[in-house]
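User: Please predict structures.

Assistant: First:
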Amino acid sequence: MSERVPTSPDEARSLARVFREEGAFVLRTIRRLGATPADAEDLTQQVFVVLHRRPELLESIARGPATRAVLFGILRRVLADHRKAQRRARRSDEVEVDAHVAVPPAQERSVRQSEARRQLDAALARLDDDKREVLVLYELEELSMPEVARVLGVPVQTAYTRLHAAREIMRKALSRQQLAVGAPSRGTP
């Protein structure tokens, strides 16, 4: 895609307004759809670069109330491209942490919160993109189901079906993780 440098003052103001009003939504949604915190800011910037390069999208936002629908469509594509690039360049950069490291009591709550977030991310990762998108938009972004359906371009009943399936998968994944975390070791009575 070629860069589109010339920007009218109106376009620049419009882009700045959209970023100011919806930047947090884009960042939060990208993060909730599975991007790492390290990648989420870069991906958010990419969404607004696409918006800058495609003035017809910026104009469609200015003409109607579909700002989040347009942004979601862009971020969905940016995230899909990012995932494809990650799969091609798969590398393991996880660092194993010694389970026996003493954690000061003041940090214990932070460790528990981090673990809960990790478990939630792992459960979300079990969902295919269609189900994850519905769950994030409905449960976390609090869009109505008709809005979710419109953003995703599917019938309302399809969105409800995906939400039901996503909730069931999440329930099972989180209950399995809870059992694994809370289960006694084999040698424990």
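Second:
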Amino acid sequence: MESLKINGWPESIRPCSFMQNLHTNITSDRSSTEQLTSLVRFGQRFGELHGPLSLALCFFGIPTNVANILVLTRTSMSQSATNHLLFWLAVADLITMLLYVPSLYHFYIVRPNPIRSPVYSPYKLWVIYQTAAASGLIIFHSLALWIAVVLAVFRYLYIGFPTVGPRLATKRRAFLSVIVLALGCILFVIPNALINYVDRCYGTTWIMFHTNESNSDKFDVYYSVGFESNDEQNMSSDAVWPKKELYAVNTWLQASLFKIFPCFLLSVLTVLLVFQMKKAIRRRKALQQVAARQQVTQLLKNNQKCSRNQLHSENRTTTLLLAILLTVLIVELPQGILVLCLQLIENFYVNVYQHLGDFIDFTTLVNESMNFVIYTSMSHQFRREFCQLFLIDKFRERFRRTCFATESQTVETNENASNVKRADISNYVCCMPRSSSTDGQPL
């Protein structure tokens, strides 16, 4: 592109931010690197690892969430309202990862631009996809978070109100709750979709960047996801106000409805669930003490044993759900605080948030991949259904039979060899000539 240059850049053309930094600081890379804060260095170092680590995590999380869906839809598992909510939780986590993988591969593995953060690409279609996927990721990730809240509410109703809870926490109400939550997430993500757009800028070619020819007259177009609030200098005063307010509304919505408020509810419900578990344990111990002091029949003993087993099963289920809720809470609450600081602290995005963006995405992927590990480690029923579904028990039994048959055949062969050896020795002893010595013993 040939045109008049002002300060090294074509007139009336906005350079990409990474090319501006390159153009103004090309001679001071070493000194500026020494002045980087520890947070900036952490963001740069983790950004180099974010692509392969997150992609490997997705390759683990996608099939495990598919396994969760298949197991939770089996007849023996799908009748419970709790398992129905866990099914939709797995669906939301799966869609979130599927939406993230293409962007992860293009922007972090292929890396079509010299500097990855902020994300630029010479291909406009990829940025259009990234713009749409950004809203989709918020929808399904927020849906998963709110499903966890409904899961805690249903479990509290079930164990806190034994007579009324099972009638309220039904599978039908669980499905209706998911539908309402999905519609709400779609509605409240509209401001985020309105402030995002495909932006473009100009920078030197990638080849010129790698050959250090930063003073070249050759320029390429790069695309990125832009935010309306960042372009106030290019707007009229009448246009700035509504867009700036829309950006503020979007920030508050993401911080409150999608992070802080559900995390607050999860914290309260987690405390209530722990309290109800302890209350149930105390009630069981009291019943055991009463039964020990009284003369009870064998029928009452059997009933007590059945009640104890049922209580153990309910406590295991509640413990599993608590593990899920705590995992979500540990990941989501710090993110909510960081999003809230975007609106409360000036320049927080530039100074802090952008350097933690990759790490925040990685922790979200970890959270979405953990449920399978929790299920298999804490739920005997899930393990049994998983093994039956994927024929693990049959392979294990076949392997055991094969090993047993091989071992039996080996033992039989050894016994036959021993018998043959003993027979040969006997024949040898019987056929030996007698010695002429006086002791009469064979030689």
